[in-house]
Write a structure and sequence with these properties.
single chain; mainly alpha; 3-stranded antiparallel beta sheet; binds zinc ion
Amino acid sequence: MSKLFENAVVSIQLGVEDYQANDPRRAISAVRNFYAGVLLLAKETLVRAVPNADLSDLIGAKYKPVPDGSGGVDFVQDGNSTIDFVTIGRRFKDFGLSIDQKALEELNRIRNDVEHLYTQKPGEAVREAIANAFPVVVQLFEHMGEAPGVHLGDAWPVMLEAKALYEKELKSCRDSLSHVDWISGTIAKDGLICPVCESKLVRQLDTDNTQQSNMDLVCRACGEEPTVEAAIESSLTEALRGEVYVRLKDAGEDGPQYHCRECDNETYVDFEGACAVCGHEYGEEDCDRCGASIPLQDIIDGEHSGLCGYCSYQYDKLMRE
Ligand SMILES: [Zn+2]
Ligand SMILES: [Zn+2]
Ligand SMILES: [Zn+2]
């Protein structure tokens, strides 16, 4: 058994012990240990895929070219930072190993936010953190051709139970929202998250209520009672994170989430053509001067209604002369 694999297993086991202690003071260490273990496990999976490679080459985050002394270049590690969940996800892709990229992104977010997220009501929140990592752990063991139960020992049934309890709780929360008549299809599909601790365990008190604006919400992980607006705003931001990134990176475009001036929330979704909180629709407009269709951002906060950004600028210039 390699040292790396051993460390991975021990770290996961320590995290599970911290979770079992059900002590608020050990919540942060539970998530830290558990996630450190998962990351080590991911590194071990890479090592096993290319057993002849040097470990530090595999897990370095950045590389730079240096002259190799004979007219060419070698690539060497740039700095000491090693890969996080997101970069390791990309490396898995490059290696042709399947892994749940979205789950990895979530783990990275949770890990970077540990101090902030796991201080209030840790039992439920830590369970959720373990449940979120569960599919990744299973995939990693599969890639290595190992059985998790054999290596993780007593920690494995605890993880299974944590996952089952969490799913049951999540289902009951989602059921409480199932009759709501949502304005946004994105929210209807992805559900709500807590604006304070980002848990998915948000439920409404009156399970028969169908009106979005009338919901009384409570977070089962941290105890917060968020407003409907805050919950929808956070949930949209989380659900559309990937789309925002793709638009910005691939096309330099803004959206799909915009500020709604009617209700003053960041809850306008362009492809839904409406605000997820108040339902306001900005519609489509062509510029009165040049006939081009006006970008949504200009419709929302343009100085002159009916004019595109360019014509608006020309108009102002003309007025100053
Ligand atoms: Zn919460
Ligand atoms: Zn609105
Ligand atoms: Zn125009």
